[in-house]
Each structure stands twice: as structure tokens, then as C-alpha cells.
Amino acid sequence: MEEMLCGKGGFGRVYQGYRKCDNMPVAIKHIPQSGVRRTAMYMDTRTKMIPVEVALMLKVNPKEGQTSAAVTLLDWYDLKSELILVLERPVPCLDLIDYMNTRGSYLDEYEAKIIVKQLVNALIEVHSKGVFHRDIKLENILIETGSAVPRVRLIDFGLGAFLTNGKYAADQGTYDYLTPEWFHRGWYTAVPTTVWQLGVVVFGMLHGFLPFITEEDIIFENPLINENLSSDCQDFINSCLVKKAEARPTLETLKHHPWLM
């Protein structure tokens, strides 16, 4: 059962709804076929051309009895004019921007650290399943608020790709989160891009605004980090936002950064 509209953009529209058999809350995403990328995938004893977003979400879906940082794809309908995805909708939850607004406009360092720890683990999990999200940003991070400790969930794999060690030249994601190497050379690699986007997110969480606005900012300017943050926190952000991709730490290295220990 489809109910109210809860989001729209270049990808299409997302509606709140529920599954009739058990009243489970769901999100229903409508994507025009003109915007659907496809890939070959072996399913039901044969190879089929299916939407890339579906293929990626099937890879990150949890096995029975397990949990996943990514929201679960429950069902999908590949129709003539549109692709419809039926997705898990955690309740209660807020996207990270709305969650920050409940705290004023940014998070204090202690609470940010709780979320960033989970976010790093979530990104490691997604990469371990062979998926490169490619559009990590505040709006694509949900915070479940139904327990004492907020829980991070990742949404919107619409710009995602299969993880490789090679170069990517397709559009990277949202402009404010683009990497310097994208502007310098027109290509990028998965792990340094994810780490850069993580750095932009963490800066945004702690400041209430993003570190870069223009291409020149991204290429040349260092982020103006609040000096009241701990030195470990400042180092974490700066290490993610190193201009040279090859000099950025890996997600596994960040997991053991002093700020998160």
C-alpha cells in the first residue's frame, strides 16, 4: 500500500507505505526507465540484464538471520515505463541532516564519534560485499532513533557500482562531495573516493555546513576545522580530506584511528 510522498529528485520519487500482509513499513521508489542502468547477472538458472541498483542491493542484502548496514531490498518490479523498488523503511528514523537539526544544526563531538564509528564499519561492510556506493552524503545516511544508541543505515545505491581496484570515469556523485582527482584527471578509484566523501560527511556533522563549495575549494583549499574539536578529531577529518588520493588512509586504517578508539 503506497501512501505519502517522502522524497523526489533526479532519480524519481520515493513514497512511504506498508506491506499489507504484516503492516511492515516500506519505502517505495519509482525510477523512470530512462535513468536505469543495467548489468548482466545470473538469476534463476540463466543470465539476465537487470538494473544495476537492484544488482547492488541484492549483493548488500543480509543473509537470513543477519543484519545489514544498508537498508534491505524487499522486492522489485521492472516495468515498461519505470523500475519500482520496495525497500525496508526503519521506523523511527531520520536522515542525518534532519537528525542534526534536532540537535540545533550540528552534532557534538561525542555523539558524532558514535555515528562515525558505525559509518566506517558500514562502509567496510558494503565494500566487503563488492559494492561501491559512490554517493556517500548526509542525505544518504539514515539514523534509527528507536534505541538508546542511534543506529546508522545506508540508503540510495542509485549511483553505485561494482567494487574494483580499477579506475572509474562515470559521474561520481553529488557536487559538494566530489574529489580533487575527479577535477584533476577525470577519473577516480573506489576507496580514496569513499574516504573523501566520509571526510566531507564528518566535517558537515560537526560544523553544520560542508567544507567545500566550488571546484577551486575542492582542489586547493584546506577545510577550516573548528579548533575546539579534539586534536584526534581534527586529524581524522584532515586525513580523510588529503588532496592526493594515494595519501588518504584506507577505511580499515580509519577504523583504528585514535579518535575512534
TrEMBL record:
Pfam families: Pkinase (PF00069). One of its GO terms (molecular function) is protein serine/threonine kinase activity. Its EC number is 2.7.11.1. One of its GO terms (cellular component) is cytoplasm. SUPFAM superfamilies: Protein kinase-like (PK-like). Belongs to the protein kinase superfamily. CAMK Ser/Thr protein kinase family. PIM subfamily. PANTHER family: AURORA KINASE-RELATED, SERINE/THREONINE-PROTEIN KINASE PIM. This is non-specific serine/threonine protein kinase. The lineage of its organism: Eukaryota, Metazoa, Chordata, Craniata, Vertebrata.
